[in-house]
Design brief:
The chain is of the alpha/beta class and 330 residues long. The chain folds into two domains: 159 residues, D-Maltodextrin-Binding Protein, domain 2 (3-Layer(aba) Sandwich), CATH 3.40.190.150; 96 residues, D-Maltodextrin-Binding Protein, domain 2. It is 41% helix and 21% strand. The chain has eleven helices and 13 strands. The strands form three sheets. A six-stranded mixed sheet has the order 4-3-5-12-6-13, sandwiched between helices. Helix 2 crosses helix 9 and helix 2 packs antiparallel against helix 10. The longest helix has 20 residues. It is globular, with a radius of gyration of 25 Å. The termini are far apart.
């Protein structure tokens, strides 16, 4: 009897040792019928990750994305490269993200306007439902600006110029919702503007600085940089509040125009990424948005930091998509 007990104890000890040698944590999964088993934890990431930015290099979205990528890289322990795919009012990068493998090694910058506005203006192969979301990391601010040596000092001057012109006055922008600002002015004043689209925010402002276009609707981050250098003048903020960098400049709302632009920078994935991989990325993302180096870059560019979870962003996009569809059908 003692030999049997000893043999049983030896076998039990061997099983315990072997079990302890397995360092791979297990994740519980539920099979049909309610039976719970243990699935091995995914070894991820094991190679470089690519983030596709849907706007051009050098613009605010690109710089913010690169700062975020560096923060996530430090957390995940693998290189993260940023690949720019500009054009189509921000949709080309989104389409590129959708068409990549859903293995977790491609992340897309999925900004709100191309997902919720542009599909109601032109044919695109996606809706907000075609992606899995990681969350948002910034909110865009918008404004209307002219070259610093321009004779136009206010929105009233631009309106007067448009009324005196023989044809519609052109303005530059990199995509929606920026044109909504000029549309609101035009509707109230009974005038027309021509939208001259550019692939990136930096190109929008370069067109104004080069004298090719007189008026630009651009992002707060980019305009502020040129305001500090003395090259641009802000005529109006196009959001809900004045800019901290230009508190003396009124909003379009204050000037009597019923418009306040709002859009977000977010990250997402091609639909169908393994939930364990998505969870790892979401965890890294939630830590990266608190990284001090990332936050400093955002502050330096005058971006409004806005963190939401992937689920919260998904709900916002679905709701806004429907609202914009109804708005643009009017």
């Amino acid at each position: 009897m003692k030999r049997k007990i000893s043999l049983f104890l030896v076998i039990s000890l061997i099983i315990m040792i072997l079990g302890g040698c397995n360092n791979t944590p297990a994740t519980p999964t539920t099979q049909a019928g309610g039976e719970t088993t243990q699935a091995p934890k995914i070894d991820y990431p094991t190679k470089a990750i690519t983030i596709i930015c849907n706007y051009g290099a050098g613009g605010g979205t690109d710089l913010a994305t690169r700062a975020l990528a560096q923060a996530m890289e430090r957390i995940l322990g693998q290189p993260i490269t940023v690949e720019n795919k500009a054009g189509g009012s921000g949709t080309l990068g989104i389409i590129e993200t959708m068409n990549r493998a859903n293995d977790g090694y491609t992340i897309g910058v999925l900004t709100a306007a191309p997902l919720t506005i542009v599909p109601h203006q032109m044919e695109v192969p996606f809706t907000p439902e075609d992606f899995d979301y990681i969350g948002t990391f910034g909110q865009y601010g918008y404004g209307i600006a002219v070259k610093a040596d321009s004779p136009y000092q206010s929105i009233a001057d631009i309106v007067a110029l448009a009324k005196a012109s023989s044809g519609p006055l052109a303005y530059s922008a990199s995509g929606y919702p920026q044109p909504f600002a000029m549309n609101a002015i035009g509707e109230k004043e009974g005038i027309e503007f021509t939208y001259a689209p550019y692939a990136s925010a930096s190109e929008v402002l370069t067109a104004v600085l080069g004298g090719h276009i007189q008026v630009a609707v651009g992002g707060q981050a980019e305009i502020t940089q040129f305001m500090k250098s003395g090259e641009l003048r802000l005529l109006a903020a196009a959001g809900e509040s004045r800019w901290e960098t230009a508190p003396e400049v009124p909003t379009l709302l204050e000037l009597g125009y019923d418009v306040a632009l709002r859009s977000y920078m977010g990250l997402g994935l091609p639909s169908g990424v393994d939930p364990q991989i998505a969870a790892i990325l979401q965890d890294a993302f939630s830590k990266a948005v608190e990284d001090e180096q990332f936050l400093q870059v955002m502050r330096n560019m005058n971006f409004m930091i806005s963190y939401t979870t992937g689920e919260e962003y998904k709900e916002f996009l679905a709701r806004t998509y429907v609202e914009n569809k109804e708005l643009m059908a009017e």
